[in-house]
Structure formats: structure tokens, C-alpha cells
């Protein structure tokens, strides 16, 4: 429990890494977080292994200096945009004689749900159990310890292209990091930026990255759909660069530092000094910068609205949560988006000291998901040991009781034999 858990999120413009630790009270704490620029990934897919590997190395080196440990293993956040969800059912008979459902029964039913026909270029990377059914009774979240004859599971099978996953793994491993496991990004994000009530009621998580927008719909406590668009925050930066005749890197800095939309409290009358090409400094009117950003953000929001309206779950959406560095950091984005999307909007940030930014949500989510899995496993082992202890005590008491009964019955039978002989 004292070991660090490392989570890595590989995006199209940045690689973020977080280090977490479970404290003595069983709560997860983020001990360090850092990021590095990445040019080897496009729309969530690795296009240059060497470049991506070098960026991972830089990011991990920064995290090692921060937490003062040597990092060799990490959990990887896999983007939902490169994945596909397929529904399937698994059915098994409960193995134990007393019909109590054990961990092995759950593993068997999950394995049974993976028996599906998949294309040759894809592979199963995970399973999301939606509900368990015991002897016809559904909506069971955790069947372990319950009794039954037949165990079923309704599950979502996560598929991804084999080459995409392999190239991602190669990039990580080339940086000297072993992949401890894959964390599905939509679920990782939901654990750190969404409230349980939101997920139950119906909410949409919009992850706006540099080159893609991933839309994840949740309803009834489950992830119900994924959609992806090949647009992102880079289109805003590109507009700034073209309109104001600036290098792309300077345009990106302007967007992050001074970007605002709507009726924000920012003073738009000031001039901003920017380094242009050939070391020339120019002054940019902040009001013009705002107009450029607003025009593109409005267009992106209208595209997102169209995508949401085409979703069958649109009417059940109670709110929309933005994450990622695409435009979640732009001032006034919540009110501006609310007017266009006609739904309550907020920016989602992890509630951890030092990591409270929508930029770090996926990396922190990967750590949280891995930490919860470890904690659940240790609690289950502890529970099994306690149950074994109780069973041993109960067996001892039963044996003592039976021994007393035998002794008592032996005395009575001897007394009976004595009286029989006497008479």
C-alpha cells in the first residue's frame, strides 16, 4: 500500500503523468503530476514511436524528480475515441456445492462474455460489467457472497485496433516503462470529475483535446455511448495564428493565458505584447483575440450540440461536463456554452491538491482507477480471511458441542445398561 501508482495519459499535444499513493486511511493522494509536449500522436493514434517515446521519457523524468523515486511501471489511459463498445452476455453455473458465488465464478462469467466474433484487425482490451443476474434477478452490482444456481452478466466489451494498441505499448516500453495495465479513459475520467448522482441521472462528458473531441454519454450509472469528432483546440490556436499572423506556438500561449469568451470579467481594451517571427515584438488587441476565439468556439459548440442531438439519450441529459485542454481552460466557457448547448455546463477538475485542472483529469483518473482496484482486491482478501476465521471458530464450537453431546449420550447409555443389568 505504500508504493506509488503511476498513471500516464498520452494526448495529441501533451503527455501527462501522475503519481499517487494510498494513505493509511485508505484514501488516495496525488503526490506529483507533470506534463511534456508530444508531437508523435495524432487524434489519439501514435504516428511516430520514437518521438512519442522521447516525450514519455521527458515526462517520467520530470515526475521522478518530483517524487524522488525510480519509475519502472505505469498504468496507461486508453482514449475512448480509438475504442468500440459491443454488448454481450455471459452465463455460467455456480461452481461451489453450497451455491455461494465466489470470485472465481465472477471471473468465469466475465470470460464467458468475451466469447464473441471480432474482426481480425481488432482485439478485446477490456470488459465493463453493466449488471449481474442471479437466477433471473437482475440489477445486481456485486454478486460475490450471494447465493444462486445460475450467474449471468450483461457486459460491454471494449474493442480496439491491434496495431493502434501495439504502437502505444511500444512507445511506452521504449521509454523504459512496463505497462502494468490499461485504464479505459471514459471510466477513469468519470471517477475523478463526475458525481455519482450525475452518472445515475444522465450526463455527458466532453473531452476536448488538441485534435479530437470525444463525447461520452452516461446513464443509469453506466457508459452508454461513445462518439468522436476529428476537431479540437488546435483549430482555435490555428485561427489565432492565421488572423494575427503569429507562430502557432505563440498563438497557443495566447489562447491559454488570455483566451476568453462571452461576458467574461476580462478587460478587453488592453494590448498584449507577443513575440512574432524573427524576434519582432507586436501588440495584439485583446478584443480582437476574443472575437477570433469566440467565432471558432461557437462553431465547435454547435457541432457538439448537433452530435448530442443525434444521440438517442439527448433528452435524458441533465448536464454537460468539459475536460481536457482544448477549451476547458478558456475563461467564461461555462456560461458561453450553456447559452449554445441549452444544458447546464461545468468544467470538470479532479479534486486533488496540485492536480485540480481539467488538463490532468485522465492521468489522475488512471491512478484512481488502479488504486481502487488494488484496494478492492485487498479488502476482498481481508474479508475472505475474516470469513475463514469465523468459519473456523464456528466449526470449533460445533465440534465442542458434538463432543459434549457424545459424552452426555455415552453417560446416559452406560446408566441405561447398568439398570438393565441390575434388573
Automatic annotation (TrEMBL):
Classification via Gene3D superfamilies: 3.30.1490.110, 3.30.420.40
Main location: membrane
Spans traversing the lipid bilayer: none
Pfam families: FtsA, SHS2_FTSA
Location of region: Disordered: 382-409
Keywords noted in UniProt: Cell cycle, Cell division, Cell membrane, Membrane
Subcellular locations according to the entry: Cell membrane
Membrane topology according to the record: Peripheral membrane protein
Basic and acidic residues biased stretches: 382-407
HAMAP family (alphabetical): FtsA
Protein name according to UniProt: Cell division protein FtsA
Name of the gene encoding the protein in the UniProt record: ftsA
